[in-house]
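tl;dr need the bound structure. longer version: we got a ligand (zinc ion) that a collaborator sent over and nobodys looked at where it sits. i said id run it. heres the input, straight from their email, havent touched it
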Amino acid sequence: MYADLTRPEVNQRIDQDALVVIPIGSTEQHGEHLPVNCDAFIAGTYAQRAAALATERGVNVLVAPTIPFGFSTHHLAFGGTISLRSQTLYAVLCDIMESLISGGVKRILFVNAHGGNNPAIAMAVNDVKRNYPETVLAFCHAAAFGREAGKDIFPGTKGSCHACEFETSAYLAFNEAAVRKDCIKSELPEPRVAGEGLGGVNREGVTMPFTMDQRTQCGVIGDATKASREKGEALTAVITEGIAKTMEQVAHCPLHPSSARVRVK
Ligand SMILES: [Zn+2]
């Protein structure tokens, strides 16, 4: 863990080309049954477990402290939510990356567990890469690694979205005691337009944002009543493996030290 090391210890690992992994989640309402730290807790847990696997495979990886806040303005009407504006989140991400790069870091991977963060992370990673072309920068959305396996683990599912069977099962696998099982509810909103999934319209060529209070009364989108610890263990094993493989790939991706701020002829 990055934060447990001293400055010389961090610098030694960075001089050995360590990959720095930054978990990012959110602090936002997750219905009545999951703690508001859900996404931050899940991001940090995935990052640590995947880093342990990658370390066993010889990858030099350091997990930085989890960023606990994200872009969650669509949840504010429910309370319980602490959100950054997208511009603030973008600035925070750029500052963190530029601090690390100033310290000699060449490889950074964000492990994101809140879909609302993806646009700001993409912008920040692209802009910092433009200014520091010698670096390898990447981000991944943890849930994406579980999409295919999730169809088998959750037979008949209508999809994953928020505090749903996927997310609740993951929390049960990581910290069952924190889930208020007697408060679990299900809510499956009707599509606003033809073809809209649980997570809204976000397919190639079309995006239609929504605020949570327009789509759900209890703050859940999905069928959390179908969640279980066993399903969560199956899902999180797949996702953890996907993140560990990504860490290996980012750690071994070739650097381009000669491309730093030079014009290609
Ligand atoms: Zn969540």
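gonna send this back to them w/ a short note. The mean pLDDT is 93.
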